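Duplicate of earlier report; ABC transporter G family member 20 input re-posted below.
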Amino acid sequence: LFISSIVNDENIAMMIAMGSFYPNLLLSGIIWPVEAMPYYLTKLSYCLPLTLMANTMRSILSRGWTISDNGIWDGYLMALAWIFPVILISSIFFRFKK
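Output:
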């Protein structure tokens, strides 16, 4: 939604989305563990939206944690912290784009 609010061409939007998806996937700890990354990449990975959400999913699926565990709320709150500003910024861009 955010990318489509910035660019006009569908192909450019797809390239930007794929170009940001794979580094996000690699640095968020889904494919390679964050603990095995160099120090500067661990700091960068915790700024990405998927890192805490991936840890939350890993805790739910492999450790059997429930919604009442404290570590689960980090992922949910991080998702909300990314969703609302991105929707707000996208709506502002769409409004000025017209």
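Helices lie at 2-6, 10-27, 39-45, 50-62, 70-97.

Merging into the original ticket.
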